[in-house]
Amino acid sequence: MVKKFITALILVIFQIYNAFGQLQGPITLTADKIKGNVQSRIKAVGNVTVHFDNATIKGNLLSYDNKTKIITISGNVFIEQPPIKLWCSSLKYSIATKKAEFYKVEGEISPTDFIKAEKLVKVSDKLWFAYNGTYTPCCCCCERPDWSIEAKEFKIKTGESFKGKWVAFDILSVPVIISPAISGPIVEKRTTGFLVPKFGYIKDQGITIKQPFYIVLGRSADLTLTYEKRFRDGNGESAKLRYVLSPYSKGNLYYYRIDSGNETNWQLDFKHSYFKSDYSYGNIKINIVSSRNFFTENGTTDVETITQQYTKSDITYSHLWDHAILNANLVYLDSLDNSTDSIFQKLPEVNFYLMDIPIIKRLPLTFSINSDFTYFYRKVGFRGSRFNIEPSLRYTIFTGSLKNSFKLSNLISYYSISENGTENIYRSLWKYEEKHFSNYRFSTDNLTVSINPEISFNYVQSKNQNDIPDFDGTDVIEREKKITASLTTYFYKKEKQLAKLKIENGYNFYLEKEPWETWNMDVEVTPNSRLTLREHLELNGNTKEISKIDSYVNFAGKKISLWINHYRSFVKAEKNDYIRWGTTLHINRYLTFSYSQRYDLQYNFDRERQYTLSINRNCWKGNISYHWIKSFDGTISYQIMLRIDLLKLGGYQYKYEGITAE
Hints:
Elements: H1 2-20, E1 27-30, E2 33-37, E3 41-52, E4 55-65, E5 70-81, E6 84-94, E7 100-110, E8 113-122, E9 127-136, E10 147-157, E11 161-171, E12 174-183, E13 193-194, E14 198-202, E15 206-216, E16 221-230, E17 235-246, E18 249-260, E19 263-277, E20 280-289, H2 293-297, H3 303-307, E21 310-320, E22 324-335, E23 345-358, E24 365-377, E25 383-399, E26 402-418, E27 422-438, E28 440-443, E29 448-460, E30 480-493, E31 496-508, E32 519-528, E33 531-539, E34 546-556, E35 560-569, E36 576-586, E37 591-600, E38 605-616, E39 620-630, E40 635-646, E41 650-661
């Protein structure tokens, strides 16, 4: 009789999990006692264990109601089907709806989704709902996770996103923020509503609070409006529109306005990308700010951003064929120093390159044409256009291990200049290029040496170009009759590079006083995986004086890494002499401390220091840093920055910066 009930129950469970679409092998069931009728109700009591596929379900009582098509397991229920591992008081599964319900449950539903709830509903392998519970991406092995979310209702898409209603954000199980809603990057369904507020601090502006509001604009677009309150002075507003036009075309438009005192500053940023394939793609990038003061009001401390001369906007498109490339580009430079009217704008620049077309099938002779057209526009001063076309013939031949390449071309340029009339200028320049390259390898039992000599000859016709306008620094082409030689040597041990040596120089026969180019010498040695040494040396080929030294040593240990760099330039235009060093210390599996310093050897004072403490707890990571730079007048610009990235919630950054005298 018992065998009969076991057989009947196995058939029922087979139906259940076959409906789930997950069954890959046999089902086994064990229990202390089984009774009932397969046509109505079946019960299994005591130490119930069900094994199927890669899943195990344990409990004290199992029942199946054939009328409602519901199977229930209760009493210390444990479910394990990697990555799912849950403990609950009872489990209910409907064959009709394929929905599973867990009561008084806790455990993990993915490696980054841990849950504890009064009720948990599994709609599909990816989609879950939880009620009156706590959610965290932190490991649930401890009772007080680093951070968690308490909510009346959760929607979880495993491994991707979550959304909660009437929530409390907890740190070590202590509520610190209460909100009517909170969400991670929901990918299944987007909902209009308030997002998590962001707090920060900006010098001269005090504490700031940003409250974003998210608006769904159909299936392929959304809009985020943000109000920024600055408690010391002013406020800000921003709007960010994101859209998707097709699987290969998308973009976003961002506008940020800051009102401070009697001054208003703003930024407009637009980006659109088109990538249909590797053979057809393009981008639009527009970046305009009201003035340089915007960066100060925004709290920007990046030196390159603050000191940039202009913002750049451009539109690019490229199309590739087997033997041709088309590039189109429009560039607009907006000066931050009120000199935009005198800047040359490329509106547009079009380049077409027809490359390496075989002329005779059995002869390695190819034909190419490189052409470009650019219109240079500006409000003040002359403007005009430039058209270049350069047909060329290339002959390539191998003689043993030596590769030889010969190229003859003619650059034809046509300029049209407008100011107080129109002037047309024509130029033709012959060019010749010859290259010879080889590779020699020598091997022993433990060492392989690769020697790569290369020699080239370049010729550009000498011609008076005083009438050629200078639009972008590439118009005047200097005469050239130059030989360049280089030798690169590699050392390998069991296919692993141990060292690299390279030396290069050139000689220009047209230059009578200083015909030699700069000697460039590079040495890189990696005796093992932990130690790296690099040396770069530039030597004036005519005076034999050193013009630049750049030395670098790095040691990477298991717990600590150290590096040091010495850079010295003897060139008057960029005379520098400084030494930099730093270290990274892995304190434990979570904490890392790093330090770097730059000392000016020319003026004998510290120029720069930075201290950073980083933490990585998997479900969140962050760092706090202190960075200062000293100017020649003795003033110190400093910045203290705290950044926290919460898994599935995003990043938060707080900065404080200032300037002080030494």
